[in-house]
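Form 7-S
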Amino acid sequence: MLELAILGFLYDEPLHGYDLRRRIAALTGHVRPIADGTLYPAIKRLERDGWLSKNLQPGTVAAPRQVLHLTAAGRAELQRRLREPEELFVTDENRWFTMLAFLRHLESPADQAAVLRRRLTFLTQPASFFWDGDRPLRAADFDDPFRQGLFTIATATSRTEIQWLRETLTKLEH
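Output:
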């Protein structure tokens, strides 16, 4: 998730580490706080893999700073990750949101639609916690208000996302 966010934000524009950290925190910080001890080793891995480079630029007020740039190989890697996301990036809500934040970087509407279709397929499969055999449960089937709340929130969220996916697929495929 972190590597995808780094590649995605650097696809937009070169950034120095502080700005990159701030943007990632705005995207995923509510789920996974981003610490320097996590970000900078990830940056070093991506640099080692040839997906980003650094160059020194003069600071406007302070000392010079390292600015991160996505390489051509990094752009290709982001495209690959978006076009062929690992299963967890389709099934895990937090990873999915990170995927959605950068899916616009796939230039082909057909490629975008293929990813959205995978998510739609996942969301329309019966989830074991919300099904009793082959029958979908209702909130009233749960005996405590907390499970009723979990069910109500989860089904409302899923219904909304499924509607958005179908509308967006219609636009992309026409």
